[in-house]
Amino acid sequence: MQLTLLGTGCPVVSLERYGPAQLIRTPDAAVLVDCGSGVTQRLVAAGCPGKLLDAVLLTHLHSDHLVDLYQLIISSWHQGRERPQRIFGPKGTRRYVEGLMALWEPERRQRIAHEARPSTIGLEVEVTEISDGWAERFGSLRATGFAVNHRPVEHAFGFAFESGGRKLVLSGDTRPCPALEAQAKGADLLVNEVFIHREMPVIAGVRSAETVANVGAYHTLSTEVGKMAQRAGAKRLALTHFVPPACDREALLAEVRADYGGPVIIGEDLMRFDLTAETLTYGQATLSLPS
């Protein structure tokens, strides 16, 4: 089982960190979690264009996690996709996808007529709304969705993936919560969002003290993520969804390592973890992944 961090950013525009998205692959499955800005480019760079996806899972319906969903549908069709795109997400996903497809229907109708491609099946979507405890198998990959605490967002999920005796847990957007801790217990890799509050100063006209407090309140603070991973006994911890995306990596690493005894990885776009081979690949470098 392999995980590629396609986008490790947040709503703040960054040239280094694209919008939130992760790709999970086994020899017989490819599953995308979230559709942040730039996801279609990152999928191609990771060697898995959208036409190959077996499923798209959405953690929640915040714009930074699904803004490129329509681009994914269109680009997958251009790549020759030969089956509908299967989309799984929280309550409200069907309404969102139907509205999205309706919004672009005139443009899509014109494309179909003018481009004269062999098939339109790749433009079809199949939506399944999930609830706490949802589970589905994609080939040898078993996916489980669990409710997390991203309130005031009412329906938000983390996902656990199991294959070949390995377990991967993605936090989604959440403050520390018992459900995430329970899922992460003994996981081979926990991939958790992080809010670096010391690097979010008040800026007149941009964000107030209330803004910083409110945003931090429904994310996992950098002072909390290591403690939570330690309590859960996760074997490894990788950080993603960096708020802000430009941060002092060394200071963040030291902060989290003070609370967590296992390996800590500061995630980067297109970083790949192979949980079967226990390796981490980034650029031209491949390292053994200690447990």
Automatic annotation (TrEMBL):
Q: Which GO terms describe its molecular function?
A: 3'-tRNA processing endoribonuclease activity
Q: Which CDD domains match?
A: arylsulfatase_AtsA-like_MBL-fold
Q: Note the coiled coil stretches, chain numbering.
A: none
Q: Where is the Metallo-beta-lactamase domain?
A: 18-206
Q: Which Pfam families match?
A: Lactamase_B_2 (PF12706)
Instruction: List UniProt keywords, sorted A-Z.
Output: Hydrolase
What SMART domains does the entry give?
A: Lactamase_B
Name the SUPFAM superfamilies for this protein.
Metallo-hydrolase/oxidoreductase
Q: Output the InterPro entries linked to this UniProt entry.
A: AtsA-like_MBL-fold (IPR044094), Metallo-B-lactamas (IPR001279), RibonucZ/Hydroxyglut_hydro (IPR036866)
Q: Protein name, please?
A: RNAse Z
